[in-house]
Amino acid sequence: MYGGIRQARRALLRVFTLTSIILGFIVAYYVNYRADRSESRVEALILFTHGTCYHIHHWMWIAGAIVCIFMGRFVRNRLLIYSLIGFMLGLALEDLLFKDWYKIRNNC
Question: DSSP letters along 73-102, please?
Fold first, then answer.
């Protein structure tokens, strides 16, 4: 009896995680590629030091946030945790659509 309930919960968790990944990707894609955005809007986190710029891509800080969620476990609801992680993974995966997703150090 409990085995079936446990399997159903795991399946539900997988569905919510996958749905969250897709939703996160769609949200990030919409924010970055919608046609009516202004050209003056800043979409990058850039650190300046000694004449060198370091571009912090959103997949980097999102990965750090996901690690913090796993390590902290501030929320006991596994469905909420995995949905949040899935959403953030979707946001991070969208960054791979850019040509320079791997470039960090740039000259200013």
Answer: -----HHHHHHHHHHHHHHHHHGGGSTTTT
Using a cut of 0.85, tell me whether the model's pTM lies above it. Answer: no
| Rounded Cα–Cα distance for residues 95 and 55 (Å) | 13
pLDDT tens per residue across all 108 residues of the chain: 567 888 888 898 899 889 999 998 888 888 777 756 565 455 667 778 877 888 777 778 888 888 877 776 666 777 878 888 888 888 888 877 777 777 777 665
Q: Where are the domains of the chain?
A: 2-107
